[in-house]
Specification:
heterodimer; A: alpha/beta; Rossmann fold; Helicase, Ruva Protein, domain 3; five-stranded parallel beta sheet; extended; B: mainly alpha
Chain lengths: ~900, ~120
């Protein structure tokens, strides 16, 4: 039970009438927490701060002088010995011939050495370590501060002793700051300002890519705006003490030895004003939590490593256990790796956030079973758990069944290499024999599924393994992936003896913290630093875009690559930033992830114009598509759906496919990222397997998207596909994912999906003739016409259903102009020939290419015939050269204007 | 401000004098307790390093997994020899720690005695 207690007499300030409050003995404010009273017992005023400063200075000076004198005494003695050549023995005899003064100096210096030692030692004891309350808790809760006297000393904790030197200095600095600004109270913002000077906080800011100077300026401005009371002595309010108490509790919960500056920061960041400042610098609570965890993790890893090395000393180096009852296992050693030995030498990294899984393993091993199987995707940390276990075994912090034993990792691959299945079985039996004799072996078999199916008529290696595990003479740990577990282990005999422990992929925040623990090593090797944004983006982007691998391994690998990339690009001591991570992942996935560049931004803003360079009219379609693309590009789209999905309806030749191509070109820069499926090829039920694939063969759709996850998927003539094929797209459009024949989840969240269909085109034409508006036509189409082809749930899943209207002659003329312009550009670029097409010719071409049923489709044919074919003849007959002008006039007349000779 | 500083300095000097006189008292109370605990921990660590308790507990367990009667006899005597020598090492270790502890006990007295002897 926790309860804050405030003295009603002094309102929590500890002072009444400028004297120490007698009611609460100057405590003022405190917390009753789990049977103990926690309070801040250090005075915070000008005198006490000055006193502490002087004492600190005097202490350091005194220690230095004492040390110097101590050294002087010894030096002078040694010097005298050397000068006079006296034996050391004479020092302890009565009639020594050394000058009395020298000896006096020596003994005095020795005395001061002892005093100096006691000073250092006492200071050490003074900085109390935070202890978890265990035995000394009071059963009777403290209800009021007037009763504080009756509480035994051991139930009272003065937390001011537990703050680190630097955090104490920050607190004192906050007081001085409040006084300098003539503020009435010491506020959290004062503390925040003083914290910014602390080296640990500076490191945090550097990792966050924030300049402490700018942040300080901003805080200073806020401090300037506070009301000033010249000459006033700032008050320490209960709110401030509450921050100290909460920081203490936070450190306590985190098993820390002191309250460090970052713990104070974590608490004051909850204050409204500070939250606002941090928010302006793009620091939210999640970010702050993870970055503070980073500092803590480093501190913890350092402490743990020290502790580990201390305990590892007691473990024997060789294969023998401490009782010397073990037997060497030369045969087993050939096929395995001694993990406890590697751990003792400090070769294995410390493992983090795996307490839950380790506890589960211990529980199983202490219970009836001796077989454990870790089931998790590759890269989620199964081996890290086993390595963590090896370290715990070295420290002897494990259940009795694992104590004083060796953990060996047996490789099935090595066991079966270069031999027949019966040979492998024989080897295994020999290994088992050695294990049984040695009695100090714990076996770990990674990839245990490899043992299933190794047989030639006789029994399977897995059955043999099952039998040996069942006999229970050695604890056996193993690992596999969920798919292989279902396929091989669950149904085999092994499934009955191995208890399953599921190892899940860590959540984003957990993975960030794991990467934070690993990053120190990567930074050290590559001599670069990582900003928090880089760490965060590594985890988030690899989670979003690298679906075939798992956290934390994929993030660690990306971080390695990023570090190397930054080292090459910017040299040592450079900082890896979020953009560097985006660059690497972009290279891997071919997805542009770097922030939108200026040119692209401009293009996005005038997207309608850009599309209209290729599409004539179709205003509604262009507008709707542009809006959706803009939303997607700035990242406003929902994370679990494709970027955008449209169904284009309309008669043939009105620009549906052209629109899709334009979108691909604008959005994916280049238009090469387009997957086009002609749905008329998938008219039977079996087509589902062609699209999704089978366990042995990849699907056409899934493979294409897997290889090119950031692209436009164009489904032409979608109405012709089999209804079961359309059902696949229900899940894709809704969740942005599909499972292929091999069981892999394929991500569609970076796809733009466009379906085109000319279902109901006769209806559109008819309605247009009747003079209906596009709105009416669309309604009619959805309600009546296309219901025959598509089910409502399919239609509902598209972001937009866009109806393309049939083209009129005027629009065909526009399109002709567009196509002719392309021809002109091509002829100039390729042959250096200038084409001129007269207005009359354009009109003629449009007339010839116009077909109310086929839209603009015949137009291309006409242009090919009248322009391209003619040009081909002229070129082949060598009648035209570079810089010549070819004029296409009415009625198919072609004139050539020869270029002037140079 | 000046008076404040001088007051604080006076107080600090007074505290330092008190601290100096507190030093022998600390040496034979809290300091002594710490050294005692340290010695005890070192002795325990020494035992852990030598594995004396484990050797004793496994006196009748055959070494190196040799479980025939010859092996059992050899191993019993081997363990006895091991225990004997390890005990000697352990005793030396205890003596060494005790020596350090004794130095702690007599150091200030001896130093003060030597100074007084020289002066008078």
């Amino acid at each position: 039970m926790s309860q804050f207690l405030i003295c009603s007499n002094c309102d929590g300030t500890g002072f009444f009438d400028k004297k120490i409050c007698l009611n609460c003995k100057g405590i003022g404010f405190g917390l009753w927490h789990e049977g103990r009273f926690i309070y801040w017992g250090r005075a915070l005023n000008e005198e006490s701060i000055l006193e502490r400063k002087i004492k600190r200075f005097a202490g350091i000076t005194a220690n230095f002088l004492l040390g110097l004198f101590g050294l002087f005494g010894i030096i002078i003695l040694v010097f005298t010995f050397w000068k006079t050549g006296i034996d050391l023995e004479e020092l302890f005899t009565r009639d020594f011939s050394l000058p009395k003064q020298i000896l006096l100096i020596f003994w005095f210096s020795l005395f001061f050495d002892l005093y100096l030692y006691s000073r250092i030692k006492r200071k050490d004891v003074g900085s109390v370590i935070i202890e978890k309350p265990c035995l000394s808790t009071s059963n009777i809760p403290l209800l009021s501060l007037t009763e504080v006297d009756r509480l035994k000393k051991k139930f009272k904790i003065d937390i001011s002793q537990n703050f680190s030197q630097r955090s104490q200095q920050a607190i004192e600095e906050a007081y001085i700051l409040a006084k300098r600004f003539a503020h009435l109270k010491v506020l959290p913002i004062h503390l925040f300002f003083s914290l910014l000077k602390i080296p640990e906080i500076k490191v945090i800011l550097a990792r966050l890519e924030i300049s402490p100077q700018i942040l300080k300026e901003r805080v200073k401005n806020i401090l300037e705006k506070e009301k000033k009371f010249p000459g006033v002595v700032p008050k320490i309010t209960p709110d401030l003490i509450k921050i100290f108490l909460n920081s203490y509790l936070k450190a306590w919960e985190g098993n820390l030895k002191r309250v460090y500056a970052e713990d104070l920061l974590a608490i004051i960041a909850r204050e409204e004003k500070i939250k606002e400042i941090l928010f302006e610098f793009e620091i939210d609570q999640d970010k702050l939590k993870n970055i503070i965890a980073w500092t803590r993790i480093n501190r913890m890893l350092f402490e743990r490593r020290k502790e580990f090395l201390g305990l590892a000393r007691f473990r024997p180096k060789g294969i023998m256990n401490r009782a010397m009852t073990a037997v060497s296992t030369p045969f087993l050693d050939q096929f395995s790796e001694d993990l406890t030995f590697l751990a003792k030498l400090g070769y294995l990294p410390l493992c983090l956030n795996r307490e839950k899984e380790l506890e589960e393993i211990f529980r199983i091993l202490e219970g009836a079973r001796v077989g454990v199987i870790l089931v998790g995707e590759p890269g989620v940390g199964k081996n890290a758990i086993i390595e963590g276990l090896a370290q715990l075994m070295v420290e002897e912090r494990v259940p009795k069944i694992l104590r004083d034993k060796r953990l060996l990792s047996l490789s099935i691959a090595r066991l079966t290499a270069g031999t027949t299945s019966s040979g492998a079985r024989e080897r295994f039996l020999r290994i088992c024999c050695e294990i049984a004799r040695a009695k100090n072996i714990v076996l770990y078999i990674p990839e245990i599924h490899g043992s299933v199916g190794i047989k030639e008529g006789g029994i399977d290696l897995a059955d043999l393994l099952t039998e040996e595990i069942k006999r229970g003479y050695f604890p056996c740990l193993s690992a596999t992936t969920p798919q292989l577990y279902t396929r091989f282990i669950e149904s085999s005999s092994l499934g009955s003896v191995l208890q399953k422990v599921i190892v899940n992929e860590p959540e984003t925040n957990e993975a960030i913290q794991i990467l934070e623990a690993k990053i120190g090593n990567i930074e050290y090797r590559n001599k670069v630093f990582f900003s928090y944004e880089a760490i965060k983006r590594t985890v988030e982007l690899s989670k979003t875009f690298l679906h075939e691998f798992y956290l934390p391994e994929k993030a660690i690998e990306i971080a390695e690559e990023v570090a190397h990339h930054v080292l090459e690009k910017r040299g040592t001591k450079a900082m890896a930033k979020g953009e560097d991570v985006s660059e690497i992942i972009s290279q891997k996935t071919k997805i542009p992830l770097t922030t939108i560049v200026e040119e692209e931004r401009e293009k996005l803003l005038r997207l309608e114009e850009v599309i209209h360079e290729r599409i004539i009219d179709q205003e509604e379609a262009v507008k709707e598509v542009s809006l959706a693309l803009r939303r997607a590009k700035v990242g406003l789209k929902s994370g679990k759906k494709p970027i955008a999905s449209f169904l284009f309806l309309g008669p043939t030749g009105v620009g549906k496919t052209e629109m899709a191509k334009t979108v691909a070109e604008v959005f994916f820069a280049g238009g090469k990222q387009m997957i086009r499926l002609d749905m008329s090829e998938y008219q039977d039920k079996a087509s589902v397997y062609r699209l999704l694939g089978t366990p042995s063969e990849g699907g056409l759709l899934t493979e294409a998207v897997r290889r090119n996850p950031y692209s436009l998927l164009l489904l032409d003539e979608v109405e012709k596909a089999h209804p079961d094929v359309l059902n696949i797209f229900l899940a894709i459009l809704d969740d942005g994912r599909a499972t292929d024949g091999a069981g892999r989840v394929i991500d569609f969240t970076n796809e733009i999906i466009i379906g085109t269909s000319n279902a109901g085109s006769s209806y559109i034409q008819e309605e247009l003739r009747k003079g209906s508006t596009m709105e009416q036509i669309k309604e009619g189409l959805l309600q009546k016409e296309i219901g025959f082809y598509f089910r409502p749930e399919f239609l509902n899943r598209f972001d937009g259903i866009i109806v393309f209207k049939p083209l009129s002659l005027a629009e065909i003329e526009e399109i002709t102009r567009l196509l002719i312009n392309r021809e002109i550009k091509r002829a100039e670029e390729k042959y250096g020939i200038i084409l001129e097409v007269t207005e009359g010719t354009i009109k003629e071409l449009a007339q010839a290419g116009f077909d109310p049923v086929f839209g603009a489709r015949p137009l291309k044919r006409v242009i090919r015939k009248r322009i391209e074919d003619v040009l081909a003849y002229l070129l082949l007959e060598k009648r035209i050269k570079r810089r010549d002008i070819v004029i296409f006039d009415k009625s198919g007349e072609v004139r050539i204007k020869k270029a002037t000779e140079l | 401000m000046f008076s404040k500083v001088s007051l604080v300095i006076t107080k600090s000097i007074f505290d330092s004098i008190l601290d100096f006189f507190y030093f022998p008292f600390w040496w034979y109370t809290k300091g002594l307790k710490d050294v005692l605990l340290w010695s005890f921990k070192k002795i325990l660590n020494g035992e852990k390093t030598l594995g004396l308790r484990i050797w004793m507990m496994n006196l009748f367990h055959p070494m190196y997994g040799v479980t025939d009667w010859q092996g059992k006899i050899i191993s019993f005597f081997m363990r006895l020899i091991q225990i004997f020598f390890r005990s000697i090492l352990f005793l030396i270790w205890i003596f060494f720690i005790f020596l350090l502890f004794s130095i702690w006990l007599v150091a200030p007295v001896f130093v003060i005695y030597s100074i007084l002897k020289l002066i008078f």
